Amino acid sequence: MKDIEVVAAVIQDGDKILATRRGYGDFIGMWEFPGGKIEGNETQEEALVREIKEELDADIELEEFITTVNYDYPNFHLIMHCYLCHLKENKIILVEHSDAKWLTKDKLSSVDWLPADIEVVEKLKKLVR
Fold it and tell me: Number of structural domains, the chain?
């Protein structure tokens, strides 16, 4: 089984967290924290800034590392490094996602998250004020 290493942005705005719905691939229609694969010699932080620019046409500021999730999907092992972030400007454009929602802590479980993202959601319920 191959390893896929990615980064994910938990984008916070006040008491809300951004969830994005996949518009492509095997898990189309499910919700995730935006991000993607680390390329070449990028650091995790550089990859996350680039991925959010590509996926949401937005610039982010990284605040802190949250967790690394290891999850076995049927065809690959995912290693996902998650960071708490905020938008530099309050605008996003959905380039690769079909929808986005700002969710308060008590609404985080109201969408159908990808399996690997559920662990992050559970951690956020304890972290987010």
Answer: 1
